[in-house]
Every structure is written in C-alpha cells, then in structure tokens.
C-alpha cells in the first residue's frame, strides 16, 4: 500500500472517529442524564408544542446558524471571497469537529483545514475575531443583566477582573514570545477593513438577539410569564456565566442547565421546566447543526499539503 492510500485511509478513520465521538456524546447525554424523565418530557412536548411552534423554533435555530455563516463569510472576505454554501460547510463541519474539544477549540483547526496551510494563521485569527465579537455581546448584556437583577457585588467583581485583565494586557502586549506579541495581534486585527468589522459586529448582535429570544419564547411556551426585562436579563446572565466556564460543547447542556437552575430557581420556576428548556436549546442549536455538519465532515477534503 503506497503512502497516498495510507493517508486517505487515515483521513477516513479520522472523519469517522470525529462523527462517531460526536454522536456518542449526544447519545450519552440523551440516554444517561437522570435529570430528564423522558416520559414527562414527551408529555410536555405533545401538550405544549403545536406544528407551528416547532416550525418557529426550528426557524430560530436555522437563523442562528445562518447569521454565524454570514459572519464567517464576511470575515473570510478579507482573505478570499467564498460562497454561502462554502461558508456553511466550513462553519458546520468545524462545529462537528469542535464538539469534542474544550470550548470548541477544535473549530479553529477545523476551519483552517479548509484552506492552504500557508493561510492557517490568518484563518485562526479570523475565527478569533468571529468568536470574540460574540463574546463581547455576551459579556455586555450579561453585565447589564447582573445589575438589573441587583447582583451588584457579582457585577462589580467581574468589572474589576476586566479592568485588571485590561491593565495586564496593556502591560505585556509588547512582550514577544517566539517573535509574537499581543500588539502584533492587535495590529493584524486592525488591518482587517472597517466595513468587515462593522458587518461582523452587526451580525453578531443580531445572532445574540435571535439566540436569547429563542430562549425567551421557550419559557413563554412553558407558561413562565415573568416581566420581559426580568426574563431577558436572567437569560443574559445565564448565557454569560455558562459561556465563561471551561467546558466541552458536548456538555454545554449541563453547564447552562446548572447555571440556569441557580438563577431561574430564584423565581420559583419548576426545575424540570428549566432542565427541559436548557436541553431543548442544546438540541436545537448544537445537536441539529452537528448532524448536518457530519455530512460535510464525511465529504471533507483538506487543502493542506
């Protein structure tokens, strides 16, 4: 067997392994989580979800990922123009590859493999910008939520940590490690055209609105009728704190579910309702895209040589 055939076999094994691991962790969650009583879950779905509500929730999930795809397509334009279909392959394929890595780190490598090896650093930088903008909105609205809900001590602590981190970054940004420094990173980010940054910010904001309001609609479906600002603030806090914790995307449901139980529990919301909603959000926004993305992983052809 020649080297080319060996490489093809190894790539096929890697593809199948990624998909098998992704689906195993999904299966593990759905089958072994003793917090979910599936008979109750099924009853709630049948009682609460009409055909049109299911369609509405699916449209929110599609729009959520579509905005992420547009973000990526917009950012990659600074290197090379790509089609929406190509951006879809890269985003969903990388999501599938990243589900078994901490905080989706595998997404960085997943996207880089769609491009020539020489462009790897640029692609990783663009992915950093793509995720960074989303995190900025998560932190911003999360802090507003903390103060609105009167978690003042928590909010000021986070602001204090942010100030300390800013001072540390300012102090060390010119220090170089193997020729690289934070100042060089900031310079490269600033070289990206302003129009691309502006569009990235707008799309990131819209994506945050879509995701948070999908959460909001699910609470309404389950007869949780807190005031709009109270419910949205709590969603913002849960999303912020859960996103700040190190975790694997495959366990995203558990992290967000645990944080949600703490904060929504303050309003005497039934804990099963909170768990059901957290699980549904995970299913709609992680499981379904991973199933779709697995198709692109199987058909993936790396441009690395």
What does this structure look like?
This protein has 305 residues and is mainly α. The protein has one domain (3-298). The protein has 12 helices and no strands. It has helices spanning 3-32, 38-48, 51-76, 84-98, 106-112, 120-148, 152-172, 182-191, 194-221, 228-244, 252-264, 271-298. Helix 4 runs antiparallel to helix 5 (106-112) and helix 10 (228-244) packs across helix 11 (252-264). The chain is globular and about 55 Å long. It starts with a helix and ends in a 7-residue tail after the last helix. The model has no long low-confidence stretch (mean pLDDT 80).
What is this structure's SSE topology?
Elements: H1 3-32, H2 38-48, H3 51-76, H4 84-98, H5 106-112, H6 120-148, H7 152-172, H8 182-191, H9 194-221, H10 228-244, H11 252-264, H12 271-298
Helix pairs in contact: 1-12, 3-4, 3-6, 3-9, 4-5, 4-12, 5-6, 6-7, 6-9, 6-10, 9-10, 9-12, 10-11, 11-12
